[in-house]
Write a structure and sequence with these properties.
Radius of gyration: 18 Å
Largest sheet: 9 strands, mixed
Bound molecules: adenosine monophosphate
Number of strands: 14
Order of helices and strands: EEEEHEHEEEEHEHHEHHEEEHHH
Shape: globular
């Protein structure tokens, strides 16, 4: 197995200015693995669900070529549930409910066929669980990418910092970058976070694009203007899945490849926000993805003046 993904597989209930859902399939691991599956990486996922989790959801992941043998089912447990409500400015949302349920005592097990993974994507989960997965791998992957959120900064910052120091790439949003660094300017925030033990930092700016920082360079991915942003849930996770999926397929961790991967991740995320949950992400084709990557290329191309 080339790409290993760890992340929540969940039920979500979402409210946006466009409508409301009941309990639907969600979870960071779900979005990441479906997005990554478009790069022929046949990823494996480590997660946990309860006995209330429908088999058809697991089969859907399998249909994308995702190996789900690393998803434990706790027979007397309930699946993780998250509910969120977006403001009219959909860059802002309130978490209404976080019921950790089976995630509370999650003891991640790495199946033997997942050992030797070259790439590891740690989706948003407890930093203790994220670290356990790194420690339980017999060989360190070539690249470890980690996503996290303000929830963990609020309740276990020390554990979070310890895990951050063990990974190569951290992906967070602009508000979280400010919270983690205590700096208001994103440039200063990035500089500070890059001293926490990582090589690269990605700051996601919702509908305004994403920034990729190394210690001595940065790259800015623009935002596509979409006709309709319907539900931003999972955009960050989809970004991460597209990002690591592309890198795993290219099997290259140069800054140039990371730049392209940032565009590819943004492309995948732009589909997720067009419908509720995984609805849009679930049915992509290479053709649809390439068309949108081309839109990004057009958006960023400009003629450099010879002189002023
Ligand atoms: P995003 O919109 O990219 O921040 O991710 C939303 C997804 O993250 C939802 O599908 C949730 O199920 C999942 N999620 C939210 N909070 C947590 C948490 N504390 N731990 C793990 N997954 C979470």
């Amino acid at each position: 197995m080339k790409l290993l993904i760890v992340g929540s597989v969940a039920f979500d209930a979402i409210e946006t200015p466009h409508g409301k859902t009941g309990k639907i399939l969600g979870g960071a691991g779900t979005y990441i693995s479906i997005a990554a599956s478009y790069f022929d990486t046949k990823p494996g996922i480590i997660s946990v669900v309860g006995n209330d989790f429908p088999t058809e959801y697991l089969l859907n992941l399998n249909n994308h070529g995702i190996d789900t043998t690393g998803i434990q089912t706790i027979t007397d447990g309930k699946t993780f549930f998250w509910s969120g409500k977006y403001h009219d400015d959909m860059n802002k949302r309130d978490t209404l409910i976080t019921e950790l349920n089976v995630l509370e005592d999650f003891d991640p097990k790495v199946p033997q066929n997942y050992q030797n993974a070259d790439y590891l994507m740690l989706g948003n989960l407890s930093p203790i669980v994220q670290r356990q997965v790194i420690e339980r791998l017999e060989k360190r992957p070539k690249l470890i990418v980690m996503d996290t959120m303000n929830f963990w900064m609020d309740i276990m910052l020390d554990e979070l910092l310890k895990t951050i120091s063990m990974v190569d790439v951290l992906t967070i949003n602009d508000e979280e970058a400010r919270q983690l660094s205590g700096e208001n300017s994103l440039a200063k925030a990035a500089k500070k976070i890059l001293t926490m033990g990582i090589q690269y930092l990605i700051i996601k700016k919702g509908e305004h694009g994403a920034l990729l920082f190394s210690k001595d360079a940065y790259f800015s991915a623009p935002a596509l203007l979409l006709d309709q942003v319907f539900d931003p849930t999972g955009a960050g996770d989809t970004f991460a899945g597209g990002f690591i999926g592309y890198i795993a397929k290219k099997d290259d961790i140069s800054f140039e490849t990371l730049k392209t991967a940032t565009i590819v991740g943004s492309t995948l995320a732009s589909f997720t926000v067009e419908k509720f949950g995984i609805e849009c992400l679930d049915t992509l084709t290479d053709h649809k993805i390439m068309d949108r990557i081309n839109e990004f290329a057009t958006l960023t191309a400009f003629k450099k003046p010879e002189s002023l």
